[in-house]
Amino acid sequence: MDFFYGGLTAETFWIAALVTLFAGFVKGAIGFAMPLIMMAVFASIMPPQLALAGLILSVLTTNLHQSLRDGWPAFRESAWGYRRLIGATIIGIAISAPFVVYIPARLLLGLLGLPVALFALYQLSGRPMKIALRHRNRAEYVLGLIAGLYGGLAGIWGPPVVIYLLSIAADKKETVRVQGVIFLIGGTVLAAAHLGTGILNEVTLPFSVALVIPAFAGMLAGFRLQDRLDPVKFRRWTLILLALTALNLLRKSIFG
Description:
With 256 residues, the protein is mostly helical. The chain contains eleven helices and no strands. The chain has one domain (2-255).
């Protein structure tokens, strides 16, 4: 078993596995936030490079499964139907990634966290914000580009995507599937990049592989809850999780 510990003690490894199990459950139920939950805890119990390596394969494999849960035709339909959002996200990542060393991470987290928190709390107050059909194409480009710019700089592109899906009132299955498609693309880029940087190496790769098991176990349990949630409750819990995610980004921005 030591081979899979990544240099951690057995106790710390099992804590990481339990955190991953919970993060996978949340992802299965709502569709996002797994890496944010994992990093929030991992950063306090292990070196940052190992923390990042630990989540990479879990993010990649769970999003592959999430995006293909309804079959290849549904995956293809979502990828084509949201091609503007996906394309703009990729372009945003390509534009911003070279500037990551020049912009303070705490500033970025604050600039993302504040508007996302305001959006989620406003929606939770019972005043829905919807994008008119005639503006959808433009909104896909704008929010996709914003998601990509933040993804390239801070590794976080989920909240703008979730905001768009909530604003067009996408149904539950479509919301989760589209998130999976977009996060799969990001996870693939992340994994490829860090095979090159050395973050994924002979020590950290087995650790990352080991965490795939609790990630999947949690996600499969979360799917059961997702299937039972009616659309109103699903939307509400998505907004609650989005608000908590944004508030955590603000916390990191202010306190580091």
